[in-house]
Amino acid sequence: MSDFFEKLFKLKKNNTDIRTELIAGFTTFLTMSYVIIVSPSILSTGGIPFSGALTATILVSALSSILMGLVANLPFALAPGMGVTAFFTFQVVMGMGVPWQTALGTVFISGLIFLVLSITRVREMIVQAIPDCIRYGVAAGIGLFITLIGLKEACFIVYSPETLVTFGKFTPNVIIFLTGLAFTVLLISRNTKGSLLIGIVFTTVVAYSCGRLWGDEIMVRIPERLFSFPDFSSAFFKLDIMDTFRLGMLGVIFTFFFTDMFDSISTFLGVAQVADLKDSRGQPKNLKRALLIDAVSTTIAGPLGSSSGTTYIESAAGIEAGGRTGLTAVIVGILFLPFLYLAPLIETIPIIATAPALILVGLYMIRAMVNIDFKKIEEGLPAFLALILIPLTYSITQGISWSFIFYTFLKILKGQARDIHPMLYVIVIFAALALTLV
Fold it and tell me: What are the domain boundaries of the chain?
């Protein structure tokens, strides 16, 4: 069996083994497992039956991640994106009054556009046109974004009308978070394999005691039932494609397409950059295949009943745990499948249990900053904008779009227009359009 995995995933060549990949897969899954509950909850707000959205979310996540592992041999997991899911529900369905069936049709059409660009290598050209300074800035920005999410989930930072955010005081949530973070850091300092995974389990155990041995709030609840059956009727192939060809839907299709494309490209570039998953040319490994699978993930999402699938930033958690091949992604995909029937069990892992892992993944990714030459304004400012705008706007697309625009503007201003990749001009035009439409 080990020879089979070695031949399929080239484990030794990538300095890893089955045990490490298994731990990495579990780690990535646990850090992104919230999508099983959160995505269907948001989609159901827009009218899609929760059970149908749940089944679609799990199928998109499982199939896309497994395909990424088998076809591209990369440790990147995919699932319906939270940003595009929120846009689907709150802006398209509820804000514009578009029926959810038609919104699913726009997801499918945007996926087909994705697929065509990937097959014709246009999308690969887009990736190659992105300057190194923006890649590093995006990687660090995603690191800050992940950190912000972790601190928010732990209630370490909370909303403040005076200062936007502030320290959340020493509540039980914060104490549990700090305890889990300290324990995980201790494991990492001792080079313990699977530190993030063990830390998540440890934090869950600590959280379970809250409301039982100390504190007032019960954070971990044992589910009343263990089994639930998948729903293949309420959202499965309910998309309305014909209604998407109305003139008013062009903006929606474009926004889905652009937002998903640059969210996935930015995540892919950022994680690949800090994990050194690059080829001899300095480009991300197996780029064409990875982008193709990402496009397939978006295309199948609409028919299954979900928002667009995309590469998840939480993949960095598994990579930090040692994952280096597609076996990690395959394990993540397989771990999703039982929850077609065991979805209630995921509720036993509280969001706060993943917060320490997210903080440490953020630290891991922000290391990319050391490669940025801040003395050169044409490189330092675009990188800085990506670094700071991604977390502050809560949008990877906003961060990378402004970064593109300022990089191009500064290069032209300094008389270095010839150094700009021709495709970057096209990207800037679409970035400007996206900023006005999103």
Answer: 2-437
